[in-house]
Every structure is written in C-alpha cells, then in structure tokens.
Amino acid sequence: MKKSYISMFLAAVTAVTMLSACGSAQPAGTTAAAGSSAASSSAEAGKSEGSDKKYTVGIAEFAEVASLDNCRQGFLKGLADEGIEEGKNLTVLYENANADGSTCTQIANDFLTKKADLICAIATPMAQAAYSAAKDKTPVIFTAVTDPVAAELAKSDKTPVGEITGTSDKLPVEAQLKMIREMLPNAKKVGIIYTTSEVNSVSAIDEYQKLAPDYGFEIVQSGVAASSDISQAADNILTKVDCITMLTDNTVVASLPVVLKKANDKKIPVFGSEVEQVKNGCLASEGLEYVGLGEQTGKMAAQVLKGEKKASEINFETVKDASFYGNTKVAENLGITIPDDLTKNAAQMFDSITEK
C-alpha cells in the first residue's frame, strides 16, 4: 500500500514537471513572435515617420511680373511631382518685394525667423538678398537668374559658392537678333531699356553689343535707376531706334505697359523676352517658358529638402531651348507681316492682346 502511494506520488510529480516544461516552451515561442512583431512595427513607424515629414518653404519674388508668377507656379508643381505638396506636407510662406531691394532683405530675414527649411528666390536681386541673409545656414534655390556667375551666386564652372543653386533663364540673344532681322529686314537700330543695378541686365547688354553687328544692328541702350525713370527713358530712346527688345529686366518688365503705349503711338515694334510679354502686347519673342523653368527648379529643391543632396552639391542649370512666340493682332496693328517660316514653327501664336 505504501509502495502504491509512492508510485502515485512520483507519477504526479512527473506529470507536473512535463506540464511546466510545456508551459514554459509556449511563452518562449510567444516572446519570439512578439519580438518579431515589435521590430516590424518599429520599422513601419520609422517608415511612416519619414513619409510624414513636413516642410516649410519661403518663396520670394522680386517683382509683380507674369513670368515670375509662372516660375512660382511651376516651382510648386515641381515639388508636388516629388511628393511635397502644399496643404499636405508643405507650408508655403510667400512674399513679393515689389522691385524694392531693401524689401528683399526684409523678406529673407523674415523667412529665416520663421524657420523656413528652404528659400526659393525668384529673380536675381531676390536671390542675392536671400543668400546674403541665409549665410549658408538655410539652403537657397534660385530661379529666373540670368547670369548666376555675374551675380556671384555660382562659380564660372557652374559649381555653387555655398548652399545655393538653381536655374538660369539666360536669354537666347542670338536667336532673338536673328528673328528680329527676319521680321524687320530694313531695321538698323535696336533699343534696350535696362536697370543699371541689375547685373543680369548688364550681362545681357554685353552679349547684345557683341552679337548685334553680326546681324547688321546697332544697339542703343538706355539705363534707368528706378521704375520712375522708365517713362522718360522710353520717350528718349524711341526717337533713335527702329524697334525695342526687352530683357528679363524685372524693373523694366514690370513697367511694360508704359513702354508699349509709347511705342505703339509711334508704330515702333517691341519684341519680348518671353511668352507672357507677347501675350501682353509685344510683337514676338524667341523666349523661354517660365512654368517649365519653375518645375525644373522645384525638382532641384525637392532633392535638398529630402536630404538627397545639399544645395552646394548641385550645379545650377540653364534652360537652353527657346521657342518662337508671335502675336498676329500686334502685327496687324503695326502693319507688319510675320514670316510664314516663323509662324509654322511657333510654339504658340496669339491673336489678341491680354491687358495687364
């Protein structure tokens, strides 16, 4: 009987031991699964955190000019194409300097105070002010800068001078001269009004002076210090020239209606430097399309915002493809026929004038 009790006791102990072993094995398996699940959750959280990153970008235009507005529109589209979209993960700070140099500096400093992750500076004076204020602590991406090297925003080999890069809207000067000669076979003098403080304009004037004799032209230039000088400058230069060609000079372009009114009164054609000027009453242009320029700039900015590259690691880019734009209504008003070979290859022709 005693042996029977002992046998029963040993059997019970063995059963408990086996159950304990089984019980301890199960939690071990559960712990491993939990660890795997936790690692997966952590990875997903990290991925989610990266995709949920939010950005603040300051966009500053130098002046109220249609081409610069197009740059801004294109810039935001370029960012959106790269997954950085206003209203989702992008906050945009926007300001316009109204062609005032001191306001450019104020805007740049305001963006820095508001902790912008990046500044998009549209046009040369704005880009210079933004870079000077940022001092390489905040990246600056510029657009609509005709000559970044002359503006001291890049080196001669196109490499950046610091945490700044962007796109250039360098004028297709030779194509413009060739087009003017085709449209005005008897013209001799081409007038240009420009702002003496805008280095992009000074650079363009130099190129015009160099190439004009190859097409039988003489360049007559008139420099202005401010928009208030443009009316008088137009009156003066229109007595000396057969036509006027516009630059991407922000101050002068902002006063284009003044120049057009005075030129139209004298039946003197004005040639634009980009499509918006042709819409607004210039006869024609071998010019650039600024929405596309802005898109290109936005994609560069996205690389910087995402940390793929620093601004200092990206050379500035130049848009090289110019297109012909013409306005048949302006041609009719001036009694000029636009040659067929230009119209058939035009990027766009307009038959009305858009009042600015």
Provide a concise account of the structure shown.
47% of the residues lie in helices and 17% in strands. It has helices at 2-51, 66-81, 101-113, 124-134, 173-183, 199-211, 230-237, 250-254, 256-265, 275-279, 290-305, 328-334, 340-343, and strands at residues 55-61, 90-96, 118-122, 140-143, 164-168, 189-195, 218-224, 243-245, 270-271, 284-287, 317-318, 323-327, 348-350. Helix 6 links the parallel strand 6 (189-195) and strand 7.
Give a description of the structure:
With 356 residues, this protein is α/β, with parallel strands linked by helices. It has two domains: 55-169 and 290-318, 3-Layer(aba) Sandwich (Rossmann fold); 173-287 and 322-350, Rossmann fold (3-Layer(aba) Sandwich), CATH 3.40.50.2300. The chain is built from 13 helices and 13 strands. The protein has helices at 2-51, 66-81, 101-113, 124-134, 173-183, 199-211, 230-237, 250-254, 256-265, 275-279, 290-305, 328-334, 340-343; strands at 55-61, 90-96, 118-122, 140-143, 164-168, 189-195, 218-224, 243-245, 270-271, 284-287, 317-318, 323-327, 348-350. The strands form three sheets. It has a six-stranded parallel beta sheet with strand order 2-1-3-4-5-11, sandwiched between helices. It is elongated, with a radius of gyration of 32 Å. Residues 1-50 have low confidence and may be disordered.
